[in-house]
Amino acid sequence: MIRAAASLCLAIAPNLAPGCPAPLPLEVAPEQIAELTRWIERHSDYAASALGPPPIFLCQTGEVIAYEGHDVVVDSELRAAYDLRNDRIFLVLPWSASDPRNLSSLLHELIHRAQFAARDWPCAAATEPEAYRLQEQWLAERGIEAGFNWFRIEIEARCLSDHHP
């Protein structure tokens, strides 16, 4: 398994699944990206808007995508992922820019992009608690309970060097 920047696992594809469509480029309104990156800047020390808008792609559960230099199958729990190596975001169908929960998944990945641009991390998973806290705050401002499993987030955010033998 490969640990996705979104802290959800994507399984390494043993064989490329025939017939899986290529991820589709997605045009998110520039105003929405700008609004989300300004929110990140107001609620963190990250200069998110200086990075410009990233390429965004739609994919679906079970689809094989090129992620962090590997062919992977999109796991059913994944809602979005930031591919640091290729500086792009994957959003998993169904996805709608009018759904605040979907927008919060995009926000989460934009936070990762800003985190990695700002500093080095001991591992990609170490970025997760902060990204989830900011996502939770964004949802709360809209009257939405995030319902995140904080125990799971903290466990999955541990770097391999954090584990005892």
TrEMBL record:
Residues 29-161 form the DUF6647 domain. Pfam families: DUF6647. This is DUF6647 domain-containing protein. It comes from Thioclava atlantica. The lineage of its organism: Bacteria, Pseudomonadati, Pseudomonadota, Alphaproteobacteria, Rhodobacterales.
